[in-house]
Amino acid sequence: MNGSRAASLTVAWRFAALRIEGFPWIPSAILGTITLVAIFANVLAPYNPEIGVLGDRFRPPAWQYGGSEAHLLGTDHVGRDVLSRLIFGARVSMVVGFTAVIVAGVLGTTLGILSGYLGGWVDQVIMRVTDTWLALPALTFAIFLAAVVGPSEMNIVIILGAVYWTRYARVIRGEVLSLRERDFVRLAIVAGCSKKTIMRRHILPNVLNSAIVLGTLMLGVVIVTEAALSFLGVGVPPPKPAWGLMLADGKKGLMAGYWWLTVLPGICIMLMVLSANLLGDWLRVKLDPQLRQL
Amino acid sequence: MTPLLEARGLTKHFAVGRGLLGRGSGVVRAVDDIRFAIEPGRTLGVVGESGCGKTTTAKLVLRLEKPTAGQILFENEDVAGLEGAGLRKYRKSVQAVFQDPFASLNPRMRVDAIIAEPLITHERLDAPAVAARVAGLLDVVGLPARSRDLFPHEFSGGQRQRIAIARALALSPRLVVLDEPVSALDVSIRAQILNLLRDLQRELGLAYLFIAHDLAAVAHMSHVIAVMYLGRIVEIGDAAQVATAPQHPYTQALFAAALPAHPDERREEVVLAGEVPSPLNPPAGCRFHPRCPKVMANCSQHEPKLKLAGGREVACHLY
Amino acid sequence: MSGLLEVSGLSTQYVGARGTRVTRAVDDVSFTIEAGRTLGIVGESGSGKTTLALTLMRLLPPAARIAAGSVRFDGEELLSKSESQMRAIRGKRMAMILQDPMASLNPLFTVGDQIAETLRAHEATPRRTAWARARGLLAAVNIAAPERRVGEYPHELSGGMRQRVVGAIAISCGPRLLIADEPTTSLDVTIQAQYLKLLGDIQREHGLAMIFITHNLGIVARMCDQVAVMYAGRLVEAGPVRTIFNEPAHPYTRALIESIPRFGDATERLTAIEGQPPDPSALPPGCAFHPRCPLVVDRCRVEAPPESRVTAQHRTRCWMAAPAPADVLKG
Fold first, then answer.
1. Which of B121, C316, C79, C296 is nearest to A188 (CA)?
2. B5-314: what fold?
3. With 80 as the cut, is the pLDDT of residue A3 above it?
4. CB pairs < 8 Å spanning A and B
5. Which of the residues A164, B146, B198, C215 could staple to A104 if both were Cys, CB 3.0 to 4.6 A apart?
6. Between chains, do B257 and C277 touch, taking CB under 8 Å as contact?
7. Type and span of the H or E element at B244
């Protein structure tokens, strides 16, 4: 019967992608590992990531000819240990990534709720601002802001938050618009609750799911943006190790065959973004009761 | 006896936005100049089909909408003009239970918080007092005490409706608006809930505005029935009389169209022609005249007013 | 006379995501319907009535499987037919009407297109003829100005008219059996009356057999010759409509009938059934109705009753129905 064949194919796909009913073990493990590495960077990294030994430049990874076990993943153009820089870079990426997502999330969700629930001129103003903001290409806008306020870790977080809050506002506002018409909100009005109370007690908890899912999906975007900013030189300032910065520095060495300077940080970025996306995807389906029925 | 709630000349028109090319804006005459009264401890049942205005009437009574014209008087005070303390008092006195038990409760709140919400909004009670009231309300609606810690999705439709009723009773209201309270429930559960509502009315002296399309349920629960058609009340009077001996042709058709309770129950077949017209463009004169089996020449010219006939009020030129 | 549709021992199950949880949606259901007669299948949520309808039409979702039984339509066994054979039957010899007309009609095609589609698929009717017949069908379902309506889109019609269009599509190829799953639930009272009258007229005119699937006993009282009551996937009572209404044998049926408010009945309280309908994936042991049954005894809690005959036409599943089960119904 074709029914059972379709069913077994679906199961196979689900297992392979580790999705939906199955908890996404591998993506979570990756993100978990990166988080732990970021927290315990001091302990894990064999060397200081910011100081290099010039005599030891451009050492390839340990398994290649010319590499040594002192530097498992080689060294960069000023003799800094790549492994240590990757480890500390995880910290930068996580901190910047999470903080920016939270900043954008809080700002965007709040404005989305206000805009969706209060309507009227509040809605108009917020939506016009959002429209304008969204019309600007995110990366260019971020570069512009970075050039204006100057690069520093704190500034990057604020910039990323400022650029990406609009995604939240749009989505959350949409949800609030439909939530507003639900019976339990009407009953709260009938019970005499103030608008503020309704937004806090009834609207906010019911949009949190979407905000969280959006957050995991934005994590990937934010990290890539941060990497791009660092790559372009307006992100986290050197000598602090950031994966994007490592990519920029390593670019020069590509022609000479120093592949580990770009490929390794690139793999790290890719793993983190991919894991965040897969996790967010799983969360989205898990937390959305309608989709879960499928 | 002063009625608890009275509507006079109550009207609600909705402006329908202009079309994409600026073509005709319309006015939906959802409720047009209606008059009714609800006595304390009694039930006014409202029946009618789509577009008749019964849901809008409920929203007007609950102050979820403001009337375009006319008044709603609660204990002789105009509801529309209430602000501040007066409005709070109104909110305490008038509560609601809606149709969909799955949408009426915030899925993220526990049952005790849901039931207590009206209490904590209006009164300053300490936690033990609130808990005691919640426990009492759960008992009144026949739910076990341990329900308080659970979430709505752990209950069935009928149980959720009980939670909604408990919440509506939290502030000891005088009037409860019931908008299709049992339509979304399984047939075997409906009787439970209707019985509960009747018991509560008797014990607590509640007045109900009972809106439903199930004619038999409305007839069973109500003391007075109002029949609405396209925003007007066409017949209003004592429930037993209206149900068993309807005067207005529409009411007759409505009750004749109701499904029988037994295969041998035969009703006089009054099958109406045509569809329910849109409230955007109600027919001239008597709004029912295009479908009326007893239409006369006068009916398309003049709209009939409610007048006393056969012990109730009917808006029809036949009388 | 052998029946037009003979269902015997039919069981349909839903299998959970990992193949572990099995829900018995339809459990050992048997009934027969003759040509030109109307059967009402009554049940609440979780009773399995919709699954039953889908099983008869072989329209089950992939997660469901037919575990046992046979469905003989006009002498042919439907359960062993291939999908392409079923396609030839569906719409032509067996038709179905669903609850929500807006979901049954494609919003992007005109009404005429959709009626014609069925005609062209089954009878290879050329386009022009199909359109002409579509007009005729719209007139047959009492839609005024059919020449105009045939070119309109579903959203331009009212709910009642849409349901008639659905009816027109259903009868377009002259089926012998029409299955109507809650066809009037979304309609207003007066529109419902019109529609039921229409269905009755169509049935008489075409000699259709009809199965009404509903939770509303009123529809059964109005339209049906025979009734079958479902509870938790099983048929708990079946028989002629007057017998069921006058002398219901099963406590559930009895309670259902008594719980409906009726006009002119001045009694204070309606007879209510305690508890709620069970979750099909977590049925109680023994008789599924026992937690709510006023006549429950120990045996009910342990053993599910088999079918027994109250009279030749009237059967039920209840330990308390007859002093001793007269004989067990064989499929």
1. B121
2. Rossmann fold (3.40.50)
3. no
4. 54
5. A164
6. no
7. helix B239-244
Q: Which residues of B touch A192 (CB under 8 A)?
A: 87-88, 91-92, 118, 121-122
In chain A, which residue's Cα lies nearest the Cα of C59? A3
Q: Give the closest of B96, B108, B122 to A187, CB-based.
A: B96
Distance, CA of B228 to CA of B31 (rounded, Å): 9
In terms of CATH architecture, what is A90-232+257-292? Orthogonal Bundle (1.10)
C-alpha distance from residue B67 to each of A110, A146, B37, B74 (Å):
32, 54, 17, 14
Using an 8 Å CB-CB cutoff, list chain B residues near C274.
Answer: 192
Distance from the A288 Cα atom to the nearest Cα atom in chain C, whole angstroms: 17
Query: Cα angle at B123 between B118 and B125, to 5 degrees?
Result: 110
Inter-chain CB proximity A190 and B117 less than 8 Å: no
| Residue A293: CB atoms within 10 Å | 6
Residue of chain B whose alpha carbon sits nearest to that of C276: B189
- pTM for the predicted model, two decimal places: 0.82
Closest-CA residue to B159 (of C288, C290, C277, A184): C277
Alpha carbon distance B255, C261 (integer Å): 14
CA-CA distance, A106 to A90, in Å (whole number)?
24
The tokens describing C284, both together, are: 């109680």
Residues in contact with A222: Cβ distance below 8 Å, sequence separation at least 6, in sequence order: A96, A97, A100, A101, A104, A160, A164
Judged against a pLDDT cut of 50, whether residue A1 lies above it is answered with no
Give the A:C interface size as CB pairs under 8 Å: 17
CA-CA distance, A33 to A87, in Å (whole number)? 11
Q: CB of C263 within 8 Å of any CB in chain B?
A: yes
Q: What ranges make up the beta strands (E) of chain C?
A: 5-15, 22-33, 38-42, 64-73, 76-77, 94-97, 177-181, 209-214, 226-231, 234-240, 308-309, 315-316
The domain locations on chain A are: 90-232+257-292
Query: Which residues 214-233 on chain C approach chain B with CB closer than 8 angstroms?
Result: 215-222
Edge-to-edge strand list for the sheet holding B94-97: B94-97, B175-179, B207-211, B43-47, B224-229, B232-238, B312-314, B307-309
> Is the Cβ–Cβ distance between B249 and B237 less than 8 Å?
no
A28 pLDDT higher than 90: no
Which residues are bridge partners to A144 per DSSP?
none
Residues of C in contact with B244 (CB under 8 A): 263-264
Q: Do B188 and C259 touch (CB under 8 A)?
A: yes
Which comes out higher in pLDDT, residue C63 or B199? B199
Q: Between helices A82-118 and A243-251, what is the axis angle to 10°?
A: 130
Nearest to A18 by CA among A28, A7, A33, A4: A28
Q: Which of A115-119, B284-288, C24-28, C325-329 is predicted least confidently?
A: C325-329
Is a pLDDT exceeding 80 seen at residue B303? Answer: yes
Q: Which chain A residues are Cβ-neighbours of C12 within 8 angstroms?
A: none
Contact A3 C62 (CB under 8 A): yes
The owner of tokens 């010039």 is: A54
Cβ neighbours of residue B81 closer than 8 Å, sequence gap 6 or more: none
Residue C247 neighbours by CB distance under 10 Å: 13
How many Cα neighbours within 13 Å face the side chain of B68?
Answer: 15
How do the domains of chain B map onto residue ranges? 5-314
List the single best residue of A182, A187, A201, A210 to mutate versus B (max B Cβ within 10 A). Answer: A187
What pLDDT score was predicted for residue A10?
A: 55
Residue C327: pLDDT above 80?
A: no
B188·C270 Cβ contact <8 A: no
Separation between Cα atoms, residue B127 and residue A242, nearest integer Å: 52
ipTM exceeding 0.90, yes/no: no
Quick check: A182 and B62 CB within 8 A? no
Measured between CB atoms, which of B159, B215, B262 is closest to C189? B215
